[in-house]
Every structure is written in structure tokens, then in C-alpha cells.
Amino acid sequence: MADKVKLELVTPSRLLLETETDMVVVPGGDGDFGVLPGHAPLLSTLRPGTLAVYEDDAVSERLFVAGGFAEVGDNRCVVLAEEALPVAEITAEMVTERLKDAREKVAAAETDKEKEDAERGLKIAEALEAGREASA
Fold first, then answer.
1. For residues 112 and 37, what is the distance between their CA atoms, to the nearest angstrom?
2. Residues 85-106: b if buried by 16+ CB within 10 A, e if exposed
3. Nearest partner of 46 among 25, 62, 70, judged by Cα
4. Which of 44, 35, 37 shows the shortest CA–CA distance to 70?
5. Residues 97 and 81 occupy one common structural domain
6. CB environment 1-15: b (16+ within 10 A), e (fewer)
7. What is the pLDDT of residues 109-134, one digit of tens each?
8. Dihedrals φ, ψ of 82, to 5°?
């Protein structure tokens, strides 16, 4: 059994992270789950939240993911994220702007589809804010 997990974090525009790590904690659709070497195969949706990369029993990196999928197997974790960025790059101004835009879209939504999309955008903005606050 390998003693590391190969982690790949991919967005529609680029490969954001490729590393070997001791553990990764993923914000799964049904709750957070940790991936260690030898983890059973798993396919999960992602909810907006923070992905934590561990080295030597400590978090070495935190990345915000807006949603997507994660596939685990063969000492590998591949995260396909709709949007992702390092938590360290999240600024107060970014959060304020995203929340403002999301709330305006919720208020202006007229159709069920527009409301659904606007509410999802608001959840992502709120998770972005929570990720920034947790790292402060």
C-alpha cells in the first residue's frame, strides 16, 4: 500500500493542483470525507466548501471549491470542480462583491430556473465567505 494519495484538482480552465499528500478532506455532497492511502473507491458530488490538504498531520493548503465531483481510487483523488481557488486568494472585497451580486440576482429572479440558479450562486458566495473567515 502506498503511503501517499495523489491529488488532482481540475477546473474547466486548468489543472489547479497536482500533488502527493498524506490526506485530503473533501466537502462532499453528503458531508466532508477524508481520503487516506488505501481508501475504498468512491464517487461523490461536491458542495461549495473548503478542500483541505494535509501533510504531517497539519493542513498544508486550503482550496475553495464551488461544486463538482470527486473520484477516489487506487491511492488517487481526482476533484473536478466547477470553480476553485486557494483560500489565501479570497479577499474581503471579492466576498462582498459576490454576495452583493448573488443577492441582487435572487431578488431579480422571475422564473423557477432563474430562482434556482440565483439561490445556488448565493450558496456559493456564502460558502466563499465561510471559507475566508475560517482561514482568518
1. 43
2. bebeebeeeebeebbeebeebe
3. 70
4. 44
5. no
6. eeeebbbebbbeeee
7. 999 999 999 999 999 999 998 887 77
8. -65, -35
CA dist., res. 64 & res. 96, Å (int): 16
For residue 52, what are the domain limits? 5-87
Say how far apart CA 67 and CA 79 lie, in whole Å: 10
The residue type at 117: D
- The CA-atom distances, in angstroms, between 44 and each of 29, 70, 80 are 7, 5, 10
* Cell 459576490, located at residue: 98
Rounded Cα gap, residues 121 and 108, in angstroms: 13
Residue 44's CATH number: 2.60.15.10
What pTM did the predictor assign? 0.89
